[in-house]
Design a protein that fits this description.
The complex is a heterodimer of chains A (about 110) and B (about 120). By secondary structure, chain A is an all-beta fold. In chain A, the strands form two sheets. In chain A, strands 2, 4, 5, 6, 9, 10 and 11 form a seven-stranded mixed β-sheet that branches. The N and C termini of chain A lie far apart (about 35 Å). The model of chain A has no long low-confidence stretch (mean pLDDT about 90). With about 120 residues, chain B is mainly β. Chain B contains no helices and twelve strands. In chain B, strands 2, 5, 6, 10, 11 and 12 form a six-stranded mixed β-sheet that branches. In chain B, strands 3-9-8-7 form a four-stranded antiparallel β-sheet, with no helix packed on it. Chain B has a two-stranded antiparallel sheet with strand order 1-4. In chain B, a hairpin with a 2-residue loop joins strand 10 and strand 11. The chains are: A mainly beta (about 110), B mainly beta (about 120). At the A-B interface, strand 4, strand 5, strand 9 and strand 10 of A face strand 6 and strand 11 of B.
């Protein structure tokens, strides 16, 4: 039963374009996250949001920005994509620092 | 910084044979990190397999076990008898005792169980 939803599943775009990925969780969790999984399958934290406050930002380029309307939604915007942004982006949520639940991921290909 | 190193690449095991996927970690916090194994089955999302938050303890789930060994800084995943349905990608991960919001993952190990 999926409780963390991500859209789209796949996205192909050109260098320099802007993209936005959506994430919604129905678990009532207080914290949401974005992870990036690169071509080497390495999973790294990008952002986390707790009650609309950014908690973690691991040296992510400024062209990336998280956007949250409420604690159930955390979108990811990339202002001007670069080839190295091609990856799978995973959204996750957790409650009070407990285990994280992940969405299915959005695969981005930058041509 | 924090890091996790696990058996790299792919592992192929025959059904009913035993399995071990190695995981060692390095953590910078004063206390001990929380340790996790996550799994991604084909066509599914990443999900928690097991976790251990106390050094010396063992976690288990679906026949898999992992023991938190703080002396060796290891958290190896083991199963006595694998099944085809265990074919998946397994990730070892840690979170700091002082910052539960960040998960640091290993590179993942793809397990293929042959009939």
């Amino acid at each position: 039963e999926t409780a963390v939803f991500q859209t789209p599943n796949y996205h192909v775009t050109q260098v320099g374009n802007e993209v936005s990925f959506n994430c919604k969780q129905t678990l009532g969790h207080d914290t949401m996250y974005w992870y990036k999984q690169d071509s080497k399958k390495l999973l790294k934290i990008m952002f986390s949001y707790n009650n609309k406050q950014l908690i973690v930002n691991e040296t992510v380029p400024r062209r990336f920005s998280p956007q949250s309307s409420d604690k159930a939604h955390l979108n990811l915007r990339i202002k001007s994509v670069e080839p190295e942004d091609s990856a799978v982006y995973l959204c996750a949520s957790s409650h009070r620092g407990r285990e994280q639940y992940f969405g299915p991921g959005t695969r981005l290909t930058v041509l | 910084g924090d890091s996790v190193t696990q058996t790299e690449g792919q592992v192929t095991v025959s059904e009913s044979k035993s399995l071990i996927i190695n995981c060692t970690y390095s953590a910078t916090s004063i206390g001990y990190p929380n340790l996790f194994w996550y799994v991604r089955y084909p066509g599914e999302g990443l999900q928690l397999l097991l976790k251990v938050i106390t050094a010396g303890q063992k976690g288990s789930s679906r026949g898999f076990e992992a023991t938190y060994n703080k002396e060796a800084t290891s958290f190896h995943l083991q199963k006595a008898s694998v099944q085809e349905s265990d074919s998946a990608v397994y990730y070892c991960a840690l979170s700091e005792g002082t910052n539960y919001n960040v998960l640091y993952f290993g590179s993942g190990t793809k397990l293929t169980v042959e009939p």
